[in-house]
Design goal:
With 332 residues, the protein is of the alpha/beta class. The protein contains 11 helices and 11 strands. Bound molecules: nicotinamide-adenine-dinucleotide (NAD). Nicotinamide-adenine-dinucleotide binds next to helix 5.
């Protein structure tokens, strides 16, 4: 009888949040879905979509983990069922880097995927918070913004480029530094998510006292971390596991903010927070509607300031490339 009541409770429980993962059968999508199944609040719903036929199987597999998160999986060419009623969409669809490739080399493969999926989001779940993992993030987010704008549903507060992997990496590298003894450390990473556009601000680590050379090498280490993984995986893909963790962390922050928690802080590539670039990754405060506030990231060390100044033309070029592509495709 207890078991029956338990089941009844479960099925009658009001759904508190629906998360859709697009690209759910991929290298990031699968571990991300696993982490979400384990860590989303009870009563959440997790909808997986990927054209790969195995996607329903991934959902069935995850559904055998005993948490009160309901999982469904959808394959084929239409993501609408996964998106219906979604509060949060995590978009990790598209191809990843192989050795020798820059993130920008993925543009021609992934841009069309973003247009198609975001058009579906605009139609099916226009109020959802959409977080883009697909690379090159610096161009894919502007494309998504243009698609949403064309559909008449763009709200910059609800669109994010996921740069939290850079933050996670910076935190991880900080743990190698003697003066840091716990993993509660937070290191702002600003700019964008490709090569030189990634600028970690290690000078803001409270216990770190770095000279210019140390800051230069720490910046280079975070900037090169993705390529380090791509080369070590030797053609079998790019970062997937630390990325899944970073996306989980970001998604749980969105969930907490949507459920009413105040002052949830994150880092993401968003529109409207910077004087010198239309989109910029910086600290943000999240609220129920998405970005509640974009925060300043000062003070920065002169070495970091120089790195930001140097990368701005690259960042702006990648942003413009996305806007131009979208306007061309959408015939604006
Ligand atoms: P992957 O190739 O392992 O998986 C991608 C998945 O996308 C595949 O399962 C594929 O079937 C699916 N897919 C293809 N077209 C689709 C569509 N139209 N709709 C839905 N799904 C579709 O790649 P991955 O390693 O999971 O990487 C995914 C993306 O994330 C890549 O673009 C990669 O560069 C990017 N990435 C971003 C970060 C970041 O920090 N933002 C870090 C690592 C990787």
């Amino acid at each position: 009888i207890t078991v029956l009541f338990g089941l009844t409770d479960f099925w009658n429980m009001e759904r508190i949040m629906k998360i859709a993962v697009l690209g759910a059968a991929g290298g990031i999508g699968q571990p991300l879905s696993l982490l979400l199944k384990m860590q989303l609040p009870a009563g959440s719903e997790l909808a997986l979509y990927d054209p790969a036929p195995m996607t329903r199987g991934v959902a069935v597999d995850l559904s055998h983990i005993p948490t009160r998160v309901k999982v469904s999986g959808y394959a084929g060419s239409d993501p609408s069922a996964a998106l219906a009623g979604a509060d949060i969409v995590l978009l990790a669809a598209g191809i990843a880097r192989k050795p020798g490739m820059e993130r920008s080399d993925l543009f021609k493969f992934n841009a069309g995927i973003i247009v198609d999926l975001v058009q579906h989001c605009a139609r099916v779940c226009p109020q959802a918070l959409v977080a883009i993992i697909t690379n090159p993030v610096n161009s894919m987010v502007p494309i998504a913004a243009e698609v949403l704008r064309k559909a008449g549903v763009y709200d910059p507060r609800r669109l994010f480029g996921l740069t939290s992997l850079d933050v996670v990496r910076a935190e991880s590298f900080a743990l190698d530094v003697e003066s840091v003894t716990n993993h509660e450390v937070t290191i702002p990473v600003v700019g964008g998510h490709s090569g030189v556009t990634i600028v970690p601000l290690f000078s803001q680590l409270s216990r770190g006292q770095y000279d210019a050379d140390e800051l230069t090498s720490l910046i280079a280490r975070v900037q090169g971390a993705g390529t380090e993984v791509v080369e070590a995986k030797a053609g079998a893909g790019s970062a997937t596991l630390a990325m899944a963790y970073a996306a989980l962390r970001f998604c749980l922050s969105l969930v907490r903010a949507k459920l009413g928690e105040a002052n949830v802080r994150e880092y993401a590539f968003v529109e409207g927070g910077h004087a010198d670039a239309k989109f910029f990754s910086q600290p943000i405060v999240l609220g129920a509607e998405g970005v509640a506030q974009v925060l300043d990231y000062q003070p920065v060390h002169p070495v970091e300031q120089a790195a930001i100044a140097r990368m701005l033309p690259v960042l702006n070029k990648e942003i413009q490339q996305g806007i131009d592509y979208a306007r061309h495709v959408l015939q604006d």
